[in-house]
Hints:
Number of helices: 9
Bound molecules: S-adenosylmethionine
Low-confidence stretches: none
Strand content: 15-25%
Amino acid sequence: MSGRDRRDSEQLFHDRQAAGRVHAFRAGQVDLRFADAAYLGHETWIGPAFAKLGDLRGKAALDYGCGHGMAAVVLARAGARVTAFDLSPGYVAEAQERLRANGVAGTCVVADGEKLPFPDLAFDVVWGNAILHHVDLARAGRELVRVMRPGGLAVFCEPWGGNPALSFARRYLPYPGKDRTPDELPLTRRELRPLRAIFPRVEVEGHQLLGMARRVLARPRLCRALDATDARLLRACPSLWNWCRYVVIVVHKG
Ligand SMILES: C[S@@+](CC[C@H](N)C(=O)[O-])C[C@H]1O[C@@H](n2cnc3c(N)ncnc32)[C@H](O)[C@@H]1O
């Protein structure tokens, strides 16, 4: 599939998804307002990853592949000047509406991560959740480094494909929330090579080793115990990160 076909299919998929949500918003069935904790706690890696952005007051922040725009709201509430972009016009409209509903400012634009409409050196920090595995990382990496300021950092949370048992489950087992675009694939070390070639420092941290069992367990106490065990295991044996469900990738421009 060519880059263009891939972008068209990604846009169609996500626009359909956004259109499926818009009726509920318009009918007032869903309140677009939310507290930061609702976003920062919706997956175990989000809060720790977001903290890596540091003090956001006065910073120019980019919400990369913003989808519903919750991160854009949290970035703005933390004092950043926010720009959010997504390939899907439907999701950009939702993000815009969410910023407005939460009483914060931000600019939302339809754009392709592989060809960004922003000037060089425009952003101090970049945040992206579940987005890099939708793009070509050689092209997107070149654009990312172009728009980041020296000393800037980008934090991405991405599904990881280093665990063969998990790859098997993702491919063959049914589970809730399995809806995927035809092209997205969890990242592996191979996909990260272009980023490592472009940026002087790329750090990768694993999340949910045993804790990934929460996808089939509905037992919060057990999940918390698994998370605590993960923290100990990953401290004792850092190379286990490669078996985790998700990774947090921190990219430094230097
Ligand atoms: C799994 S969603 C994640 C959205 C959001 N970051 C979140 O946390 O929910 C992936 C998003 O990537 C967007 N996307 C896919 N390919 C893209 C591209 N080439 N450029 C920009 N956004 C893209 C989709 O439209 C979709 O909103």
